[in-house]
Design goal:
This protein is of the alpha/beta class and 472 residues long. The protein contains 19 helices and seven strands. Strand 1, helix 1 and strand 2 form a beta-alpha-beta unit.
Length: 472
């Protein structure tokens, strides 16, 4: 019977949990999976829910009331296009397809235009929060035509996470076309930066100060009670307490191979930032840190061949240095978020996306991986000044970075002396110093370019474009 409010295709864990979230909030859901056994197993576990399975796409579509709403939760790329192509002949004018995967924003733009030619609406929906977020409330980032969003606004509002401070749902309309997936891409770029910064903090505290895992757990738990309060800091403290799965001495974290995986969304952020001419020092350093971590065999060999600094013996006051690392982490995290918000601001101009920066920060306050206490401060900064040139200039952050920069510099310098790599910490500080510098050495670069390629230059003392005879 065509009585279901929405249909979902793709019953991997994220898809299953979103179905259960919708059902818990009173929506009748039809489901379809390419593998029938997955549908059977899911339905068998949830017989008491308003969920109906179908084993062919025509039967699946027939379960939906008009205008039909179909949500796709399959792997990004060709699988999304394949499902869309199969749905087109089954849907009618005014029906809606939602892509809830990690799709590239340009693909979302292309798919929207393709479906519009068939009279079918399309919404690109960024979903963050992992498996638990999908089940209990994710952060949702929708983009597309306003009328497409209007069709599902009540549903998305119901299933979204609710911010702890004011109970506001963590979903808002982000603009036309691929705006939703663009915001999700930048969210993931910030996530890469945040995770790398936390990892570098751990490495410094372990290799420079010599903290054991139990002490690291206490440090991160304490940090999570203050201005660094966030999901990633919270789970980091939890990780250090986990005993090894196989009963060996010590904690599991020490037995995990130091080669980080990635699915490409961080790389997309850096690539797009280069396209738009937006500096993303921290986010790009985090992507490169993951890449070099994968060169495990080469790193092991190089460790036996390449010179290292003399062994570093920490002689400072431990509590004071731990506090310095906390301050350096806070400053670097602010730099990472500043880069992400600057990229969103550039996308508003380049792609005609009406991305509201204050509301974007607000919907990241709960549900998503980068949820953190200071997102409330970021929200307030853009509420006070919607077209703020850079988050670093907001009064609260400007004051904090000024107060903390000495500690920031000491931590980076100490890591360098000890030979502990801190690509994201160092890049964050370089971003801050570059942005606050009235004059950079680019004048010499322009002179070089003009000498070898006659690329011309501008002067600081008069208008116009100039070329010099450098052999004179």
């Amino acid at each position: 019977m065509a009585e279901h409010d929405i249909g979902l295709i793709g019953l991997a864990v994220m898809g299953q949990n979103l179905v259960l979230n919708m059902a818990r909030n009173g929506y009748r859901v039809a489901v379809y999976n390419r593998t029938p056994a997955a549908t059977d197993e899911f339905l068998a576990r949830h017989r008491d829910q308003p969920i109906t399975g179908a084993y062919t796409l025509p039967d699946f579509v027939a379960l939906l009331r008009k205008p039909r709403i179909v949500k796709i939760m399959v792997k990004a790329g060709a699988p999304v296009d394949s499902v869309i192509d199969q749905l087109i002949p089954l849907l009618e004018t005014g029906d809606l397809i939602i892509d809830g995967g990690n799709s590239y924003f340009a693909d979302t733009e292309r798919r929207e235009a393709h479906l519009a030619a068939h009279g079918i609406r399309f919404l690109g929906l960024g979903v963050s929060g992992g498996e638990e977020g999908a089940l209990w409330g994710p952060s949702l980032m929708p983009g597309g035509a306003p009328e497409a969003y209007a069709m599902v606004e009540p549903l998305l509002t119901a299933i979204a996470a609710k911010a702890p401070s004011d109970g506001a749902p963590c979903v808002t309309y982000l603009g036309r076309g691929g705006a939703g997936h663009y915001v999700k891409m930048v969210h993931n770029g910030i996530e890469y930066g945040d995770m790398q910064l936390i990892a570098e903090s751990y490495d410094i505290l372990k290799r420079v100060v010599g903290l054991r895992n139990a002490e690291l757990a206490e440090v991160f738990a304490a940090w999570n009670q203050g201005e660094l309060d966030s999901f990633l800091i919270e789970i980091t403290a939890q990780i250090f307490r986990r005993a090894d799965d196989h009963g060996q001495a010590g904690e599991l974290v020490d037995y995990i191979l130091d080669a980080a995986g990635q699915k490409g969304t961080g790389k997309w952020t850096s690539q797009n930032a280069l396209d738009l001419g937006v500096p993303t020092h921290t986010l790009t350093a985090a992507v490169e840190a993951r890449i070099i971590s994968a060169f495990k065999a080469e790193r092991v060999a190089a460790s036996q061949l390449l010179g290292a600094p003399a062994p570093y013996a920490f002689s400072g006051e431990r509590a004071a240095f731990i506090e310095a690392v906390r301050r350096a982490l806070y400053c670097s995290k602010v730099a990472a978020y500043a880069q992400g918000m600057a990229l969103l601001s550039a996308a508003r101009r380049e792609y005609d996306y009406a991305i509201p920066l204050d509301k974007t920060a607000a919907i990241w306050r709960a549900g998503c991986i980068i949820r953190a206490r200071f997102l409330a401060d970021i929200t307030e900064a853009y509420q006070a000044e919607p077209y703020l040139a850079n988050l670093l200039l907001a009064p609260k952050f400007r004051q904090a970075l000024g107060d903390y920069q000495s500690a920031w510099r000491d931590v980076v310098a100490t890591a360098i002396r000890a030979g502990v790599p801190t690509p994201a910490f160092s890049a964050s500080l370089a971003y801050y110093d570059s942005y606050r510098s009235e004059r950079l050495p680019a004048n010499l670069i322009q002179a070089q370019r003009d000498l070898f390629g006659a690329h011309t230059f501008e002067r600081i003392d008069r208008e116009g474009v100039f070329h010099a005879d450098w052999s004179a």
